[in-house]
Automatic annotation (TrEMBL):
PANTHER family: V-TYPE PROTON ATPASE 116 KDA SUBUNIT A 2, VACUOLAR PROTON ATPASES
UniProt main location, coarse: membrane
Keywords recorded for this protein, A-Z: Coiled coil, Hydrogen ion transport, Ion transport, Membrane, Transmembrane, Transmembrane helix, Transport
Gene Ontology CC: plasma membrane; vacuolar proton-transporting V-type ATPase, V0 domain
Keyword Ubl conjugation applies: no
Keyword GTP-binding in annotation: no
Compartment(s) where it occurs, according to its Swiss-Prot or TrEMBL record: Membrane
Protein name, entry field: V-type proton ATPase subunit a
GO molecular function terms noted in the UniProt entry: ATPase binding; proton-transporting ATPase activity, rotational mechanism
One of the GO biological process terms: vacuolar acidification
Gene assigned in the entry: ATP6V0A2
Record-annotated membrane-spanning stretches: 406-430, 451-468, 554-572, 584-607, 651-674, 785-808
Function: Essential component of the vacuolar proton pump (V-ATPase), a multimeric enzyme that catalyzes the translocation of protons across the membranes. Required for assembly and activity of the V-ATPase.
InterPro entries in the cross-refs: V-ATPase_116kDa_su, V-type_ATPase_116kDa_su_euka
């Protein structure tokens, strides 16, 4: 595993792949995930690249596999997902696999089509039987008149108003019967009346049970209708209206014998269709079960094959078109594995000429690779969300592992809440290999991916909860309080001591609502609590005042230390990139500005804690007043914290005032001096750097002459920059803006760390409110009903604690901790302008069927 402190050293390698071995070599590289390919055909359209035909073939195979997965899921056949990923198929098996899948698709489509056709016929026959059953009661025609007349004699010479003609029409009725959707009945009837002008008789009846529509497959309610009409023209109109409303029209029998024959024939055909349909479904299920056994491996193989051809499209051919040339970024530590992968690919293809590689120098900035494991991945994701680190700069994730959960715990300090969070995270860690957790919903998966962050956050919250002595807003007396109440009684002291201090007696104890412990009285304060805050403060009325003072000062101390540490980390960046002038002209003035003002504030806080005791606390000066007087230079002398304080403060202000112009003008003037042909020892550049015309600092460093000899010949070429590209005004403005932002940021960022105090106070008070409103009420009820009331009260308290204090307050503290790291800490040294190393790896391919269907 590479170092987490800084990204790994990368190199640009050139791969020479023989045309016959390129596929196998890239397959071996994809299994190992060692390199990131560069696109050498950026100016070539995607449709004009060499292997676009192979990519289309893979897409066609993906389409066939998606169809197979869809049919398998429709048949409720479980899809097996193998634990091991099959390798990419050899080129000899690709055509064979394509033929098998195409043949299987054709067979499935044909069987499915026949099945749907049989099913549609079956549904139509069932509808026909229901229609015959219902319409049997509609019209009872006289059998003796039915065979003596033609169905539709010509009507050209007859007048519709003639009585004899109407008599003839009455004997020559026509019928249309069928089924119509329930929602269309009213509109259908109105249309028949308007078009046919009343020359129709419509009879309806609703079916007892809903039927499945043969066209759409929906189960809906149907109405059976029977339309009686006169005349052939009206009959055509009726049939057109039925087609318009998508009615299912079936022939209506003329006689009872014909109805009986049709009914018997329908029953026989329905039984035959049931038999054929069951056999078809059994055969289709057999085919799908056989296909399901190999569909997982085929999906993975096609994905790998498509990824290989995508990478091959990024390669270029040599002059002879016999060799593929690829450029890849590779960590220097993996060069040996890269050569071995190329040898394995050449050996598998059976080529006589093996593929090989060599490293090439470059002026481009490589991508950033920081190797992580399941523990450090979550913290690295927090840093990468701000910005991927620049190449080889200090990685904040190493320190975020400690500082992030600690700052969270400062705001979330409660032993009980932290322990619950720790148990939840520990449960996720112990069951991290459970398949249901890996395939859970998005919210639970988010908790699962950050399980180690939650684990440390809970563990640190337990620690800070012990420091605050808070457990569900109550204090725990583990070691015994350091305060002695009985020592305040006057009976326990000599008469000489009674006149010096205010002591208690029985009258004061009975009449006073509030009693004050005086630590200056001998025997009252016996020493500090061994670990954390004394539990007696939980009973004090001035508890909030005491805790506010403690937490506010603690927040300032932690914030200044955190920001100072960020400035120190910037020195490591300057040393690595061999910009020592940045240390003297940027980092040192920044440290002096920070420490001479805010570092001195920490000194005064700690000095007052150590020097002044309970006896001398009344004469102790205010730190806030002393810190303000440091800048105002009051005319009257003050007591001060120590002797010579005024001289020390003036010296610190003088150093601060001198560091500001150095911070503003030092770096621009130095770069101008370098640009004018001077030389400076200790300034050099090695490794990979990004050369941009708009970067004036780079131009000045790589200006008219070499500052120091580099490690390779490419550095000499990088330094050959023209003098016209140096712009002193732009450098000066950039540095001035950076300096103003830093100086003002030291003040605003220090104030921003007071959120540690504010959120800790809010969390403690909200926890106390929940306890007071729920648990205390349940505990104060008498014993008769107290037990019955206490159980639902505790349940409600647990629910509100989880949802309000753990989830909502925890999310708030989490977001504030992220802000403190991104804005207050990382901006002191972290640029975050790099590009992430994305290797060509088959492990990044999804193996889920749901993703394939999407």
């Amino acid at each position: 595993m590479g170092s987490l402190f800084r990204s790994e050293t990368m190199c640009l390698a050139q791969l020479f792949l023989q045309s016959g071995t390129a596929y196998e070599c890239l397959s071996a590289l994809g299994e190992k995930g060692l390199v990131q390919f560069r696109d050498l055909n950026q100016n070539v359209s995607s449709f004009q690249r060499k292997f676009v035909g192979e990519v289309k073939r893979c897409e066609e195979l993906e389409r066939i596999l998606a169809y197979l997965v869809q049919e398998i899921n429709r048949a409720d056949i479980p899809l097996p997902e193998g634990e091991t990923s099959p390798p990419a198929p050899p080129l000899k098996q690709v055509l064979e696999m394509q033929e098998q899948l195409q043949k299987l698709e054709v067979e499935l489509r044909e069987v499915t089509k026949n099945k749907e056709k049989l099913r549609k016929n079956l549904l139509e026959l069932i509808e026909y039987t229901h229609m015959l059953r219902v319409t049997k009661t509609f019209v009872k025609r006289n059998v003796e008149f039915e065979p003596t007349y033609e169905e539709f004699p010509p009507l050209e010479n007859d007048s519709l108003l003639d009585y004899s003609c109407m008599q003839r029409l009455g004997a020559k009725l026509g019928f249309v019967s069928g089924l119509i959707n329930q929602g269309k009945v009213e509109a259908f009837e109105k249309m028949l009346w308007r078009v046919c002008k009343g020359y129709t008789i419509v009879t309806y009846a609703e079916l007892d049970e809903p039927l499945e529509d043969p066209e759409t497959g929906e189960v809906i309610k149907w109405y059976v209708f029977l339309i009686s009409f006169w005349g052939e023209q009206i009959g055509h109109k009726v049939k057109k209206i039925c087609d318009c409303y998508h009615c299912h029209v079936y022939p209506y029998p003329n006689t009872a014998e014909e109805r009986k024959e049709i009914q018997e024939g329908l029953n026989t055909r329905i039984q035959d269709l049931y038999t054929v349909l069951h056999k078809t479904e059994d055969y289709l299920r057999q085919v799908l079960c056989k296909a399901a056994e190999s569909v997982y491996s085929h999906v993975i193989q096609v994905k790998k094959m498509k990824a290989i051809y995508h990478m091959l499209n990024m390669c270029s051919f040599d002059v002879t078109n016999k060799c593929l040339i690829a450029e890849v970024w590779c960590p220097e530590a993996d060069l040996h594995d890269l050569r071995r992968a190329l040898q394995e690919g050449s050996r598998e293809s059976g080529a006589t000429i093996p593929s090989f590689m060599n490293t090439i120098p470059t002026k481009e900035t490589p991508p950033t690779l920081i190797r992580t494991n399941k523990f450090t991945e979550g913290f690295q994701n927090i840093v990468d969300a701000y910005g991927v680190g620049s190449y080889r700069e200090v990685n904040p994730a190493l320190f975020t592992i400690v500082t992030f959960p600690f700052l969270f715990a400062v705001m979330f300090g409660d032993f009980g809440h932290g322990f619950v969070m720790f148990l939840f995270a520990l449960l996720l860690v112990l069951n991290e290999n459970h398949p249901r957790l890996n395939q859970s919903q998005e919210i639970l998966r988010m908790f699962f991916n950050g399980r180690y962050i939650l684990l440390l956050m809970g563990l640190f919250s337990v620690y800070t909860g012990l420091i605050y002595n808070d457990c569900f807003s109550k204090s725990v007396n583990l070691f015994g309080s350091g305060w002695n109440v009985s020592a305040m009684y006057s009976s326990g002291h000599a008469p000489a001591e009674r006149g010096k201090v205010v002591l208690w007696n029985d009258t004061i104890v009975r009449r006073s609502r509030v009693l004050q412990l005086d630590p200056s009285v001998p025997g009252v304060f016996q020493g500090p609590y061994p670990f954390g805050i004394d539990p007696i403060w939980n009973l004090a009325t001035n508890r909030l005042t005491f805790l506010n003072s403690f937490k506010m000062k603690m927040s300032v101390i932690l914030g200044i230390i955190h920001m100072t540490f960020g400035v120190i980390l910037g020195i490591f960046n300057h040393l690595h990139f061999r910009k020592k002038f940045n240390i003297y002209l940027v980092s040192v003035p920044e440290l002096l500005f920070m420490l001479c003002i805010f570092g001195y504030l920490i000194f005064m806080i700690i000095y007052k804690w150590l020097v002044y005791s309970a006896e001398t606390s009344r004469v102790a000066p205010s730190i806030l007043i002393e810190f303000i007087n440091m800048f105002l230079f009051p005319a009257s002398e003050t007591n001060g914290l120590y002797s010579g304080q005024e001289h020390v403060q003036r010296l610190l202000l003088a150093v601060t005032a001198l560091s500001v112009p150095v911070l503003f003008l030092g770096k621009p003037l130095f770069l101008l001096w370098l640009h004018n042909g001077r030389s400076c020892f200790g300034v050099s550049r090695s490794g990979y750097t990004l050369i941009r015309k708009e970067s004036e600092e780079e131009v000045s460093l790589l200006g008219s002459q070499d500052i120091e000899e580099g490690n390779n010949q490419m550095e000499d070429g990088c330094r050959e920059m023209t003098c016209e590209e140096f712009n002193f005004g732009e450098i000066l403005m950039t540095q001035v803006i950076h300096s103003i932002e830093y100086c003002l940021g030291c003040i605003s960022n220090t104030a921003s760390y007071l959120r540690l105090w504010a959120l800790s106070l809010a969390h403690a008070q909200l926890s106390d409110v929940l306890w007071t409103m729920l648990v205390r009420v349940g505990l104060r009820v008498d014993t008769t009903y107290g037990v019955l009331l206490l159980l639902p009260v505790i349940a409600l308290f647990a629910v509100l604690t989880i949802f309000i204090l753990l989830i909502m307050e925890g999310l708030s503290a989490f977001l504030h901790a992220i802000r403190l790291h991104w804005v207050e800490f990382q901006n002191k040294f972290y640029v975050g302008a790099g590009t992430k190393f994305v290797p060509f790896s088959f492990r990044l391919l999804s193996s889920k069927f749901s993703d394939d269907m999407a």
